[in-house]
Every structure is written in C-alpha cells, then in structure tokens.
C-alpha cells in the first residue's frame, strides 16, 4: 500500500522576498502575563487565552507567557484560560493589568470511578469512531481565519533564522475534501548566513507546514485508509479539559512493521468522541536511512542528511458544539554530515501557527489563484519589519520567548548598523515532502 507521510517541506537554497501588505493599525488594548500551575508555579505551555463571546484568542509560549490584543474600546467581558488537565479559569477584563498578570490554574481531578464505569474497552475502536465523526463534530461551514505563523532554524542552540507572518486561511468545511487556501498578509524574516557555514538552509512551505498537521482535515498523513491498521492503541491515564472527561490513548506502530510510522497520544472527548488534541512523532530509531528518504530530495554526494527527531502537535477549540483547528506545530531535528569533515552540524527547525480570530465565510469568498501562496513558498528575507516595534499592529501573535526576543534584538542592532550578511555560495541540499498521496 502506498504510504503518505507528513513531513516538512525543507530546502537549502535561496528565495526571493515575499511581498508585504500594509494597512493602518486601529488602536488596541494589550494584556500581557503568564499562566502557571497554582501549586507549583510551573509555566503552562500552549494554554489557550481567549476573549469570551468572541473568536479572539492566542496561546502561551514555551515560557507560559501570553500577549492578548483586544479592541481598545472593550471594557467589559471575561478572558478565558484553558489548558488540558486543568480547570478552566475566567477573569473579569477589568481586573487584568496591561502587564505582569499571573494566572494560576488548578489541576482538574478525574474521578477513577467515573472512568472505570464509562470507559470503552477497545481503544482502537474509539479512535476509529472519532475519525468517522468528522462531519458531525467539526465546523461544517467555510470560515476565514486569521493566523500567526512563526518558523525558526537553529544550528545546535543558536538561532540562525527567524520568520514570522500573519496569514489569512480560507478554511474549507470539515465535511468536504476541498483544500484550504492561504493568503499572506505581512511577514518578516532574517537569516544569519554567517552561521550557515556549510549549507544555505531554508524551510519551504511556510504556513502549510503547520496547516497540514490538522489531522482531521488532512487524515491522509496519519490514519487514512488502511494506515490505521499499522498501529496498536491502548488507554492510559484519563484527564479533563473544560470540565469534560478526556480519554488519553497512546499509539505506536506494530513492531513487525519495518517502515517508519508514528507513535504518540490522542486526546478524545469522552462524551462527544471528538479528537481534541494529538501529539506524535516519527519512529526514527534504527530507521534513520529509511526516514531520510522521506525528506531528502537532492544533496551533494559527500553529505549525509539524517533526521534525528520529527514531531507534531495539533490542538482543536470548540465553538457552539463544533470544533475547529486552533494551533499546530512541527519540529524537525537532523544532522548534516560531510564525509571530509571531522564534525557534523545539527540543525533544528520548528514551525508553529495559532488561529487568533475567525469568522464565517458567508459569501464563500476565496482569493484569486495569483493571490494565494503556494505549498512551495519559501518566505523571503525581509528584515526591515524587525525595526518597527509596532509591526504587527492590532494582530495577535504568539508572545516571543526569551531566545527569540534576543534574536530580534540582535537583528535590530544589525539593522541600525546597516550591516547585512551576504548570502553565502554553498552547496545545495533539498529536503521536501512526498506529496504523491494527495
């Protein structure tokens, strides 16, 4: 059976800049803070922060910090905080300061008796039912979504490239096989080519890298057809979210299957049997060469490019009894090994995207073909946006973590000195996604 793998569209090459659109920014009210465990003070990563009775939202970063922008005239309302395994928390808008808010969340207790009495016995059957209920559980109408996208490239632990963009996603209903369209609103990118000393590394696909992790919209990359028969499923400790019982199911490929498939966890609402979240990774150990064939399209003969880690995450949100794509992330680590060099280079690439607002697409509007970005897009170098502290205006973003803030400050210093790195002439290595299954 032909297998379709989900993996990043990666290219080690140069690209031309992406055209940026500009608009006048309306006034907004900004609310900053952090979300932590009430007992331990531990940061809660990727908690959802939203303004009740609207579709305005964001997520916390890897340090639990958030920035929420709402219309300046908004004075009444509640800000909701939700996180898997914790009780929801709502805070009156008037009690939130512009900065340094600390939101403490309590762990939700799951009654063992409740789980034992109601839990289904067959984990695999539950997964199949959840996948089959896509039409009834997820948005069944077209929507226009605003998204914030960020991609980073690190050489070992140092940032060498940072790209950010606001995009408009014309999301097709989940009960159709029509694909989503993406239009780029504005973006900025800077690459330190002096640190890319052996290859000019770039990531192809832009927002599509994250969008295709929406496994309920694009099931062909994980469980579609007979692929689900390659996995063993089992229940593990249940949890709660939004005061609802959530079954946690672990899955892994059967040990006698030689091709690299995935292992991970699925979080399924007990009542509605709807997939709320999924985290999974490609089984690479002992299969490095086979996994490399899924990614590497072209490379110099003296170079080995081997994936070390490939992992994914997707989270869904609920609105009036229907769920929709809210956040996803892709992380890829691989090493580049030159035959005539003593040491190899390790690169980590990440791409994440969060839906920050959306509305019903009542008129069925879609951008013209020439206005849509292609799956082969490479965000072009355009660093000038980093010099503008109000570059994003009213748009919500994922608050940058400290390492990204440091990278932005460095870019700003470079811009003030008007010193731009020259793009090095280096060998080309191409890594891409096998799209034969679509």
From TrEMBL:
Keywords: Signal. Residues 1-21 form the signal peptide. This is Carboxypeptidase-like regulatory domain-containing protein. It comes from Aureicoccus marinus.
